[in-house]
UniProtKB/TrEMBL annotation:
Residues 341-351 have a biased composition (Basic and acidic residues). It comes from Batillaria attramentaria. It comes from the Eukaryota. InterPro entries: DUR (IPR031155), Na/Glc_symporter_sf (IPR038377). Gene3D superfamilies: Sodium/glucose cotransporter (1.20.1730.10). Residues 340-362, 377-439 are annotated as: Disordered. The keyword Transmembrane helix applies. Keywords: Membrane, Transmembrane, Transmembrane helix, Transport. This is Uncharacterized protein. The chain crosses the membrane at residues 79-98, 104-126, 133-151, 171-194, 255-275, 295-315.
Length: 439
């Protein structure tokens, strides 16, 4: 929607090529919003603007249009949240009037969306997966799950005429959820092999590169993980590490994610139901222990779902504030140093007691000739220039003075010592001749 004529290998900001297939002569050189001076100026101006109801206009030539587009999407998101919330409220009232319990709705959601679990999981790990296979597995799996769910419910007394009671039974919901998950996965894998028969192993790397191209040009993922990846220049949109480097950096995180997912799956699917089956009829003490275990599980889940994200978000806000405060302090220090350097009087270097503002003491030491001859030239505006004439007839353009030498002898300051690479011979010490050797 933002830029109609673009592809995955083109920068969404400037339209130039980027990544592995970009032409070096016409390659993207865009940077992120964090290192853009114009974006910082826009942020300061927006902070000074008190009219929050007026739509912001960003003047940055690189990120301005995309920032306006992003804010437009955020406004749409907020309105969508409002309308969805307003739609959920009457839907909840209708479910209550229909005497549907929350457990029935929760289990029925598994029948509807369970077929999409395996396709979504495979899209993150399997390079051979195709879009056709994902759609086929999700849709056909949902149809089979609904048919199984209704078929099992019809076997109970009263059939589908006693709809809520029979469809809400555990066996009906269990069969519907299992068929949704299993059929969705099997159909997705089979259709992927059929529709992508000419798959080569080298295509997996290109598929991963297309996935890595999905990025925000305002805050790229390389800038977010610059510390973990040990990147320099992460604010440049085209500066991205290879897939092998990313995999090596996050190998431990990937290992922990795999171990955690397998452990939770075995606990919820195998261990917990096995314990319930082995107990059969609980005694009072066993039931008390089961209730306490359920409460502990719920409390731990609440901590990880509610409290940990809040703490993590607060820490991220603190780090962002600290970095921003550090940057603002550095900018204020640079501004103060700049004003101080302009306010302090500059001492002019003196050579042989005479002030020469044109002498740059940081320039390399000039060449010193054994014998020095001077020539006076008239530039036409009444100012006479003193030029050194070396004995070998070399170039003396760099030694021409743009101002006449001040021969005022009233200054009694001591001579400044100058370091030279040669030895000055036949030094012209007479000040009454109207000329002085220039270094």
């Amino acid at each position: 929607p933002y830029r109609r004529t673009t592809d995955t290998n083109s920068c969404i900001l400037c339209g130039k090529g980027r990544g592995r297939m970009a032409n070096p002569r016409d390659k993207c050189v865009c940077t992120s919003m964090t290192h853009c001076a114009q974006c910082h100026a826009d942020d300061k101006n927006s902070g000074l603007d008190k009219k929050k109801s007026i739509r912001r206009e960003y003047k940055c030539r690189i990120h301005g249009a995309f920032r306006e587009y992003t804010e437009y999407l955020l406004s749409l998101r907020n309105w969508c949240m409002v309308w969805v919330t307003m739609s959920i409220l009457p839907l909840t009232v209708l479910l209550y009037m229909a005497q549907l319990s929350l457990g029935w709705v929760y289990l029925f959601m598994g029948v509807l969306v369970g077929s999409a679990v395996v396709p979504i999981t495979l899209c993150m790990f399997w390079g051979r997966l195709t879009g056709t296979a994902m759609i086929a597995g999700s849709v056909v799996g949902m149809v089979l799950a609904l048919a199984t769910w209704l078929g099992v419910a019809a076997t109970y007394e009263g059939g589908l005429s006693n709809f809520l009671d029979n469809t809400g039974k555990e066996l009906s919901m269990l069969c519907g959820n299992l068929v949704a998950i299993l059929s969705g996965g099997i159909i997705t894998i089979v259709v992927s092999f059929i529709t992508n028969r000419h798959y080569e192993s080298g295509q997996a790397a290109e598929i991963w590169e297309n996935t890595r191209d999905i990025d925000s040009p305002l805050s790229p993922w390389t800038e977010v993980y610059a510390k973990e990846l040990n990147l320099s220049g992460a604010h440049q949109l085209d500066n991205r590490p290879s897939l092998q480097e990313v995999a090596a950096t996050f190998r431990f995180a990937r290992l922990m994610a795999n171990i955690g997912s397998v452990t939770l799956a075995l606990t919820m699917i195998v261990l917990w139901p096995a314990l319930m089956v082995a107990i059969e009829t609980m005694t009072r003490s066993q039931f008390t222990g089961w209730v306490n275990l359920s409460i502990a599980w719920a409390v731990i889940a609440m901590i990880f779902v509610v409290i940990v994200p809040l703490v993590n978000e607060a820490y991220d806000l603190f780090v962002a504030w600290k970095v921003r405060h550090k940057i603002s302090c550095e900018e204020e220090g640079l501004v103060t140093l700049h004003h101080t350097s302009h306010m302090e009087p500059q001492r002019e270097p003196r050579v042989h007691g005479h002030s020469h503002s044109h002498v740059n003491m940081r320039t390399p030491t000039p060449k010193v000739f054994d014998s020095v001859a001077m020539k006076t030239t008239d530039s036409g505006d009444g100012v006479k220039d003193e030029v050194i004439i070396p004995p070998d007839g070399g170039d003396t353009s760099s030694f021409a003075l743009d101002k006449p030498i001040n021969n005022d002898h009233s200054n009694t300051e001591p001579d400044m010592a100058l370091e030279t690479n040669g030895t000055l011979g036949n030094h012209v010490d007479s000040m009454g001749s109207g000329s002085e050797p220039v270094f």
